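# step 3/5: fold
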Amino acid sequence: MALDTGELRPPLSLDRLSQPHPSIPANPLVAEPLFLAKYIEKAGSGTLDIVTRCKSGGMRPPEFRLEAGCFILTIWRKASLILEVTGQVTGQVTGQVTGQVTGQVTGQVEAWIIKVLEACATPLKSSEIKEVIGIRHRETFQRNYLDHLLAEGWLERTIPDKPSSSMQKYRVTEKGKVYLAEMEGKGDLK
């Protein structure tokens, strides 16, 4: 039976990936040496590990799907990660990495928020905001950046009744100005 790249081997199905299931490697001649060399921890445990770690991290379950001959795994980040930028990154990271990751992520998130809010003192189109923070992909920018700033109330639309207007621009709100002032008070603005 010839299968396309990314297809699951019978009896596997997308639903079974979240339950104990057999490992059916696409190429056993490659999988076995990887297992023996300890590059693979335990055959058939990867998707279960992902599901378990998402649950223990308080995240929604991962999404497995097949699309255009590709196997796609979507892991959803915690919504609070971006929204809790004023101080701490949630989740459990252990050992040496904790302080480093928390500081880096919090600093990076605060840095792009500060850049956008400062730039939007003069109303800007979304394409202009994307340039400010160096994001090219429109959907990624909308979902991961712009929507969060709007939800926090730090940015607002200049034409609120027509969110998809070609003339739409975004400006910093009073709440956004307060956030900037707080960051300036902490010495985070340079």
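# step 4/5: annotate
Residues 81-107 have pLDDT under 50 and may be disordered.
# step 5/5: archive (pending)
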